[in-house]
Amino acid sequence: MKDMRKGLSMVNPANPLIVQSDKSVLLEVDNPLYENARDSLARFAELVKSPEYVHTYRVTPLSLWNAAAMGMTPNEVIAALEKFAKYPIPGNISREIIDYMSRYGMISLYKEGPDLLLLCEDADLAEEIWRSKKVREYLIDRVDSTTMRVDPTKRGFVKTALIEIGHPVEDVAGYVEGEALYFELRETSLGSKPFHLRGYQKDAVAIFYAGGGVRGGSGVVVLPCGAGKTMVGMGAMENLQTSTLILCPNVVAVRQWITELLDKTTLTPEQVGEYTGDEKLIRPVTVATYQILTWRKSRDDKFKHFKIFEARNWGLIIYDEVHLLPAPVFRATATIQATRRLGLTATLVREDGREEDVFSLIGPKRFDMPWKQLEDQGWIATAICYEIRLELPDDMRRKYALAEDRKKYRIAAENPRKLELIKKLVKYHKKDNVLVIGMYLDQLGIIAEEIGAPLITGKTPNAERQRLYNLFRTGEQKILVVSKVANFALDLPDANVAIQVSGTFGSRQEEAQRLGRILRPKLDGSYARFYSVVTRDTRDMDFAAKRQLFLTEQGYQYVIAAVEEKVWEEPPETFFN
Question: What are the angstrom distances between the C-alpha of 511 and each of 10, 136, 188, 481?
């Protein structure tokens, strides 16, 4: 009875959290403490679903290991839950948090002379590891009851195998220094603008660098599009002063990196090379695409461009949009664990569920800052998200009903009624800088023709893309219709309206990237508006609900309305609580 009374004294009905014994956490949205609780949860739990009134999070081994890698202790996690919990926390949850987080650091990799050693906290754990078939193939022999010798070429593979059996590895084996490369960040860019890293960018660099010690040098920095992930990369480069390989999702991103490096650092054009399908120059700083690395003549051929990993003594590899990392590059990364690795992304969500690969091969999440916090500080634009629903025409309903599941989505996504709504939105936003974004090229072609705007797809030559992007930047072109090529690393600072007509099913990472296209802060402080045009009562609406998870996780105001309500004509302030 004494223990029960003690538990009841912790009850606080005004709090927004309900922590349940299945490791799920319910968060009430309509609560004054909602935002504080959400930001706290984001450090150690994953959002599962977010309907209107109650959001569901889950505490997972990976979320706890990331928290441990960021320096959180089990007591801090438990204290955060207790601070916001409406009812006492189930005893098994506290025990699970302690047990899972304590696993981080129970196994470590370190160097001793030429040997790579795996050290376990105790002999029983070492025996479990030694007997694991998944791990055993990467071990050479046993040094003593708690230590095993690891094949140095399998450093990444053994970490992946260990995390698959529930044991994260703290890798303190150190790194090669790489070829020296001396340069500085400019205080004034070549474009004559003052330049310095923002406070949160400096924090991200410092946490990654960790004073140059073995406990830093690998991991992921999570920041929204427009918050300056490239600057974090340059800050890490300046700290390390070493030759660097930068991997990007497309040629546009490669050239943006090169432009920024030459504009904001003392690196010269002779020191920075592009390695793409168009040009292949390996320099002390080389910027390449994932596509060129994964190109091969046939499925049975080798990846001929993987030689770039050995072309120089790289001291740092930067993975831009690391959540997109192709499987072959993951495998290559497993063999280069002695090189420092920095992943940059707006979201660690991978649609293939392989977030653990990022953890084991790139490194744990080192820095994450809530999007709304950056918005509040004025570093990214204030955005409001609209989901506008319309009906499928009567003459398409039977076709939709009889179609296979995958075809159902395309039929709904290409709903011809979307065109009239897009015209209304474009007309209303005629003074704004508008991106119309979609997945299906036929649909985008029709839209581009009807609204009189240029269309950019994967087939558009890079030179033509750059020309159109430049026209948009200067204001000569107010509207662009873009396919999935605009999902990543597209720098259009003045874009303030995005209209999404179709997407990659329920991809949250795509939602993050598309919203990011309009998040650069606006000189006049105006809102950014993100519209999703959705066909009611179809797979289109189902997938929109999945994409909405990301937006609500970040705290964005999400307005759902029927087309006849004309919510775009209402001032954005109307929809804020």
Answer: 39, 40, 34, 17
466 and 364 housed in the same domain = no
Tell whether 286 and 350 lie within a shared domain.
yes
The pLDDT value given to residue 223: 87
CA distances from 255 to 242, 278, 541 (A): 21, 11, 36
Same domain, residue pair 97 and 114: no
Cα–Cα dist 268/521, whole Å: 30
- Count the Cβ atoms, other than its own, within 10 Å of residue 137: 12
Provide, for the chain, the percentages of residues in helix, strand and coil under a 3-state DSSP scheme, each rounded to the nearest 5.
Answer: 45, 20, 35
384 and 264 in a common domain: no
The two tokens of residue 391 are: 């009906």
- Alpha carbon distance 457, 463 (integer Å): 13
Q: If you write DSSP's letter for every residue of 109-170 in order, what string do you get?
A: EEEETTEEEEEESSHHHHHHHHH-HHHHTTEEEESSSSEEEE-GGGHHHHHHHHHHTT---E
- The two structure tokens encoding residue 100: 């899972």
Amino acid at site 211: G
**CA-to-CA distance for 233 and 497, rounded, in angstroms?**
28
As a whole number of angstroms, the distance between CA 270 and CA 257 comes to 15
The DSSP output letter for 361 is I
Q: At what angle do helices 539-553 and 405-413 cross, to 10 degrees?
A: 80
CA distance 512 to 508: 6
Q: Where are the alpha helices (DSSP H) in 490-561?
A: 508-516, 539-553
Distance CA 558, CA 575 (A): 9
| SS3 sequence of 207-268 | HHHHHHCCCCCEEEEECCCCCCHHHHHHHHHHHHCECEEEEECCHHHHHHHHHHHHHHECCC
- Look at residue 178 and give its three-state secondary structure: coil
Residue 162, both tokens? 């260990």
Strands 285-289 and 244-248: parallel
Ranges of the chain whose pLDDT falls below 70: 1-10, 50-52, 349-353, 486-491, 493, 504-512, 516, 521-525, 549-550, 552-555, 576-577
Give dist(CA 256, CA 550) in Å, integer: 26
Token pair belonging to 70 = 């960021």
∠ CA 419-438-387, rounded to 5°: 70
HEC-encoded secondary structure of 544-564:
HHHHHHHHHHCCCEEEEEEHH
Relative to beta strand 244-248, strand 316-320 is parallel
Q: Which domain holds residue 149?
A: 107-171
Domain match, 327 and 284 both: yes
Angle at 347 between CA 341 and CA 352, to 5 degrees: 90
CA dist 430 and 331 (Å) reads 48
